[in-house]
Specification:
Length: 356
């Protein structure tokens, strides 16, 4: 078992426990009475702990060669229930000095009811240091057991919730079922309010995008040059006949207006995106100022934040899609202008002037 931590006051960033199932015979501890250094395992029982490890972040207020980076407690080697008469050991690794490739390390062995370093000519720990190491071992054991208890409580709560939900689903379906039996893979839990909110936002964003595409499709079926050719219609024949300058003017005005419409739409989406982000920033700042916010306010904000972030994601996707489609639409417009017979004069060269 191992866990990682962040931003703890004691700078603990990791702890783990390694078990020793070989110290058991037929499910019972080898050597008689139960040791306090065991870890409960489902379907197995109490398993002896082989090693406990803790890692700490750097403390800038302490010299690196005195700042503990990792400490390991080897427990399975103990031969007695008394910690002072065991043959276990404690290994301490210190942080590296800046620019150094090596780090300090000390190994302490249990000998004659005390902690000693080997060989004996090494600097031996003081009583204060011994007490600190033993206290750290006890604290490490307590932390690991408290974590195990918390995990078991959470798993128990989850199982109860799942059983309750399966029961409600069975009742609504008119079925009777033994709820003590674990559910199958077909028993899907009800979606949470956040899942429903995200799905609703996704459907809404997709619907808006589909409506815009439908409007664009209808617009594409309209004669895009019609507004620009009104002034060039022959009243007698009702036909349009342009010279090269007139055709070029119509094409230029059509292209300019089309580019402006694409730009305006991108600006609208961008503005909505910025407004959504600004509202979310304001709500976050408001929650941070209210340090004594009640649980209901926090739930409401979390729900709003999930919805706002999803709306933001939809707008970002729509903006990216619009930018990609804008390039394609502009290319289609240029191709249409080139193929429109009413603008054919624009692509024909003027006849050369005859010299007199």
């Amino acid at each position: 078992m191992f866990e990682y931590f962040e931003d703890r006051d004691d700078r603990l960033i990791y702890h783990s426990v390694t078990l020793d199932p070989t110290a058991m015979i037929n499910g019972t501890l080898r050597g008689g009475p139960k040791s306090k250094d065991t870890y409960p395992v489902d379907s197995v029982g109490e398993v002896p702990i082989k090693k406990m490890t803790q890692k700490y972040a750097r403390n800038p207020e302490v010299p690196a060669d005195e700042d503990i980076a990792k400490i390991s407690f080897y427990l399975s080697e103990q031969t007695s229930s008394s910690i002072y008469s065991s043959t276990g050991k404690i290994r301490v690794d210190y942080h590296r000095e800046p620019g150094s490739l090596t780090f300090g390390q000390a190994m302490y062995h249990y000998e004659d009811g005390n902690l000693r370093r080997r060989p004996s000519n090494l600097r031996q720990p003081t009583q204060v240091q011994v007490h600190k190491l033993l206290q750290m071992q006890s604290s490490c054991r307590d932390t690991i057991m408290a974590s195990h208890t918390s995990i078991q409580q959470e798993l128990t709560t989850r199982r109860k919730d799942e059983i309750s939900i399966r029961g409600m689903r069975s009742v609504s379906a008119g079925k009777k079922r033994d709820l003590t039996i674990p559910g199958s893979r077909d028993d899907v839990l009800e979606p949470s309010v956040y899942d429903l909110a995200r799905e609703s936002a996704r459907v809404e964003g997709t619907r808006e995008g589909a409506e815009e595409e439908k409007q664009e499709e209808q617009t594409s079926k309209v004669d895009i040059l019609a507004p620009y050719l009104v002034d060039f219609i022959n009243k007698e024949t009702g036909l349009v006949q342009l010279d090269s300058l007139q055709a070029e003017l119509v094409a230029k005005k059509c292209t300019t207006d089309f580019r402006k419409r694409l730009t305006d739409r991108a600006e609208i989406i961008q503005r909505r995106l910025e407004e959504e982000q600004e509202l979310l920033r304001k709500r976050r700042a408001q929650m941070q100022r209210r340090g004594d916010s009640v649980e209901r306010d926090e739930r409401d904000f979390e729900q709003y934040q999930n919805q706002a972030m999803f709306r933001t994601q939809i707008l970002e996707q729509r903006l990216a899609r619009h930018e990609m489609q804008a390039i394609e639409k502009f290319q289609d417009l240029e191709r249409m202008l080139q193929e429109d017979p009413r603008l054919a004069a624009m692509w024909q060269k003027e006849p050369a002037a005859v010299k007199g």
